[in-house]
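Record type: monomer structure entry
Structure origin: computed from sequence
Chain ID: A
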Amino acid sequence: MAQARWIDLLDPSPEELERAMPRTLHDRALSRLRAPATHEDEPRPTLEGHEGYVFGIFLIAVAVPEEDRIFYQEVDLVATGELLITVRKTPPDGAPFDPASIREARATGPAGTGMLVYALVDEVAERYLSLVDTLEDEIDELEEGVESLAADVIRGRISELRHDLLHVRRTLTPTRDSVRRVLDGRIEIGGKRQFTREVELHFEDSYDKLLRASEGLELARDLVAGVRDYSQAKISIDQNEVMKKLTAIASMLLVPTFIVGLYGQNFHHIPELSWGFGYWWAWGWIVATTIVQIVYFRRKRWI
């Protein structure tokens, strides 16, 4: 196998792109290569065959646990029979993709463009597996904090995680489908398969990793839903505890209020009114009923 030539471009200028790219590159691919690194559900990851070359777009989601955020690295490729061109773009909020896997593939021996593309795709798949593990750790940490963190903090973090999972899914699914195209033999140049059977077997490993990442992502979504339900259940329990305390306080105030209202009526023939100890009699009932209620509610752990 002949050693393929590899050109790696980082944030290239339009002139650098024009010098490096094949003349047959279609306008849509060229405009995508020139576009700045952004991620608002675009560009959509793809790997497709054209007349004389293969064009690909990959987005790698990178988690930053210390800052509770995810940013996306974009790497585009153009592959011909003997040449691989990668275009890496620096995201506005992170570092660009490091093509160390491609360097290692070239250093281990002669590698054609198919194996170099596989090395890139396999690195993308590994990154998604690591991302899913990181997200699951974040969810576990959030679940442990439900008992100690404020409810608005929990709600905000759950909302962020659900948003991140949705965006990761929108990049992971088309990435997996693109690799599936290789296995189905749909990446062709001039009616012939671009990748040999040996290379396609390697792509099967990457496809399996992307499948596992997709399954892990679905599990992570279920875990976030579980944390949300747990948080809501805790809020309901806390509200019940507050209601118990309010009920106990209202009850302890109700009986003395009744006694005061009873003896505060404008009647002249209330026996206790003419009794020398009537005042202390009323206070005795107030104190006694209050003590009885305090003992009762403490035994029920309402206060």
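Annotation 1: The first helix runs from residue 14 to 20.
Annotation 2: Residues 156 and 162 are 10 Å apart (CA to CA).
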